[in-house]
Amino acid sequence: MVTHSTPAFDADVVLIGGGIMSATLGAMLAQERPDWRILLLERADALATESSGPWNNAGTGHTGFCELNYMPDPADAAKPLSMVEQFGRTRAWWDGLVADGRLDGGFLHPTPHLDVVFGERDMAYLRQRYETLRAHPEFAAMEYTENPETIRQWAPLVMEGRGSESMWGRMAATRHPGGTDVDFGALTRGLTAIVTEAGGEVRFGHEVTGLRRTLAGWTVRGKGPEGRFAIRTRRVFVGAGGKALRLLQSARLPEVRGYAVLPVGAAFLRCSDPEVARRLDGKVYGQAEIGAPPMSVPHLDRRYVDGADHLLFGPYATFSTKLLKRGRLTDFFTTLRPGNLHVVAAAALQNLGLVRYLIAQLAASRRAKFAQLQRFYPAADPAQWELIPAGQRAQLVTPDPRRVGVLQQGTELVTGADGTIAGLLGASPGASTAVPIMQDLLARWGVTARVEPQPNSEIQPVAH
């Protein structure tokens, strides 16, 4: 008689990458499947060292309140409505964890979201956008003004040193009081603590280099502090940011055939003078310049990080062939395959405006960069601001039967045919949509992640 032994697994699920996506998935599993063995592998010596780190993003809870690039047609509210619904689910889940005492709510701060635009063309756009959005309950609290004194009340710092209308031209603004500033680094650490408290494990200094399918699951290979390792697991989630595509390619996943990524870097101007920072109660978004790509929308952000107030302005484009801030210059080239070279080339040719914008940004002097800030804060003192590198992104490029290659502006969850492997590709606004994305993945695993709206907390800041 022949007996068949059950394969031994080291984990029920391996999470690759210590950012907000793996932390969200891990915390959901700790809630819904406490019997699962969860193992998180992170190549760095800490969590949230890449895009989830507080200085590698602007901390905006992406609700669609102020992101003008989500609504190029001011009569079409589809994308903002989708964003506010997704962030609402994410917020409801966070709020539930805070209410249960499992998560410290200090990662989130009430921060109004504003738009400020200049000139008749952009004023007309903002006015129509406001009229379209305010018809929906989620945006009913939004206000609109063309009165400089009202703008001064909403954002005094924006009007400091502005002078007469003849110098700067006419302005308009919108304000939604229900916005937030989110420290995704603190949130990542809080969610990961839920995983470890439930018996999960986090291993730092473990860099995954390859994934191999087995008869019953996956083998995760890599190198750690004690040498090379091989971990057997039933399921894998690749939340490795810029390295995600390369790992999914190593798994020979048909679903990513033809997929590619392009490196996108950014820098911000930061002011850490608390007296200056406290004069802006909000996040102020503007309109991208004519011909500039949507991702270049300028914004001046009040940030609250590690117990201190700061201001952040940007983004300014940078260039590197790295796909992670702590990556290697060879990162981009390791993702190229005969099957995606034409996809990358087609996307680049269709986005020459982006290429020109990048070249102009790289050539811009510090004085030119500072002049962009002064459009939003005319009285800014250069001595109080420093230019800091922000996160490195991997912008997703997908094959297309008509256009060959399409540069995507968001994120995409890629799942293998049998559902045992998945990975997240692309960039912003992934963090704000983490819960809906992970709910979709868990459904593939036969797990229902419950998200219950909390009383009096829908899209409202957590009290702390």
UniProtKB/TrEMBL annotation:
<protein>
    <recommendedName>
        <fullName>Probable malate:quinone oxidoreductase</fullName>
        <ecNumber>1.1.5.4</ecNumber>
    </recommendedName>
</protein>
<keyword id="KW-0560">Oxidoreductase</keyword>
<dbReference type="InterPro" id="IPR006231">
    <property type="entry name" value="MQO"/>
</dbReference>
<keyword id="KW-0274">FAD</keyword>
<dbReference type="InterPro" id="IPR036188">
    <property type="entry name" value="FAD/NAD-bd_sf"/>
</dbReference>
<dbReference type="GO" id="GO:0047545">
    <property type="term" value="F:(S)-2-hydroxyglutarate dehydrogenase activity"/>
</dbReference>
<dbReference type="GO" id="GO:0006099">
    <property type="term" value="P:tricarboxylic acid cycle"/>
</dbReference>
<dbReference type="Pfam" id="PF06039">
    <property type="entry name" value="Mqo"/>
</dbReference>
<comment type="similarity">
    <text>Belongs to the MQO family.</text>
</comment>
<keyword id="KW-0285">Flavoprotein</keyword>
<dbReference type="GO" id="GO:0008924">
    <property type="term" value="F:L-malate dehydrogenase (quinone) activity"/>
</dbReference>
<comment type="pathway">
    <text>Carbohydrate metabolism; tricarboxylic acid cycle; oxaloacetate from (S)-malate (quinone route): step 1/1.</text>
</comment>
<keyword id="KW-0816">Tricarboxylic acid cycle</keyword>
